[in-house]
Design brief:
about 220 residues, about 55% helix, Rossmann fold, binds CO-5-methoxybenzimidazolylcobamide, 5 strands, five-stranded parallel beta sheet, alpha/beta, Methyltransferase, Methionine Synthase (B12-binding Domains), Chain A, domain 1
């Protein structure tokens, strides 16, 4: 049985979608529970991927393949997870700020969050402060996640934070920001709740925000 857990972990890391789905189905058929699969295979696979990514040992296309394999595993587990009470993870609205058309990093963050069981509403790129506020009103997310890759558009984070305050929504939603030019200092300055420098940190930070933990990414 232990080998099966390792096989599934490896299949996710190597981006082998079909193998990952087959191994997951096999584990379920053997009576293994979803939590055990997550604990012994999917979580360790992402932890390992994150370490490889940070050390520059893995390229972005490979990470996207792994994320796809993970999504496929979640697709197999989804109906079972849905029937669990207390397993609902939370709603995330994510978008790239106004003036910025970069979407690869944001998509990666969204994909990893989805693969971890979050409901992610991706409202796209070049999102105005008004559109962010509308999305918070409409979807009532637990977390609003904003990405900016351009130094020039960093100011948009601040604009959205102010718009949230003006519309009385700031206390109703946690905010996480990220993207290459963003840093902890700036995130603190604009009053965000968390900052993450990569997609894997974003996963941990969102977990912290949703479960009200003061994790290392909370500001
Ligand atoms: Co542009 N671009 N680009 N670009 N581009 C950068 C960002 C740049 C650093 C290149 C450079 O000059 N060295 C530079 C920005 C400089 C700056 O302001 N600091 C730049 C520029 C200047 C521009 C244009 C202005 C160029 C021009 O037209 N003269 C223009 C702007 C257009 C616009 O947005 N209005 C432009 C356009 C483009 C393309 C359209 C050609 C293309 C984007 C395609 C697309 O996204 N569909 C593009 C690309 C590809 C890049 C680079 C080369 C790669 C970005 C990328 O996708 N990285 C980039 C240089 C670079 O970063 N090496 C560059 C891979 C991705 C997985 O990483 O997006 O960083 P990243 O996301 C990471 C983290 O940042 C973090 O997690 C992700 C995964 O780990 N993260 C979050 C991101 N969002 C997060 C949110 C979180 C948490 C973490 O919580 C909410």
């Amino acid at each position: 049985m232990d080998k099966l857990f390792i096989d599934l972990k490896e299949a996710i890391i190597n981006g082998q979608t079909q193998t990952a789905m087959d191994k997951t189905k096999l584990l379920l058929r053997k009576g293994v529970g979803v939590h055990e699969i997550i604990k012994k295979s999917t979580d360790p696979s992402f932890k390992e991927l994150g370490e490889k990514m940070q050390k520059g040992e893995i390229a972005i296309p490979d990470v996207l393949m792994s994320a796809r394999a993970m999504l496929a595993v979640m697709y197999v587990l989804e109906p079972i997870i849905a029937s669990y009470k207390g397993f609902a993870k939370g709603i995330i609205v994510i978008g790239t700020v106004a003036g910025d058309l970069h979407d690869i990093g944001k998509k990666l963050v969204a994909m990893l969050l989805k693969s971890r069981g979050y409901t992610v509403i991706d409202i796209g790129i070049d999102v105005t402060k008004e559109a962010f506020v509308e999305a918070v009103k409409k979807y009532k997310p637990d977390v609003l996640a904003m990405s900016s890759l351009l130094t020039l558009t960093l100011v948009e984070f601040k604009n959205v934070m102010e718009a949230l305050k003006e519309s009385g929504l700031r206390s109703k939603v946690k905010v996480i920001v990220g993207g290459a030019p963003v840093n902890v200092k700036y995130a603190k300055e604009i009053g965000a709740d968390a900052f993450a420098s990569d997609a894997f940190e974003a996963l941990e930070a969102v977990d912290d925000l949703i479960y009200n933990k003061i994790g290392k990414y909370s500001l």
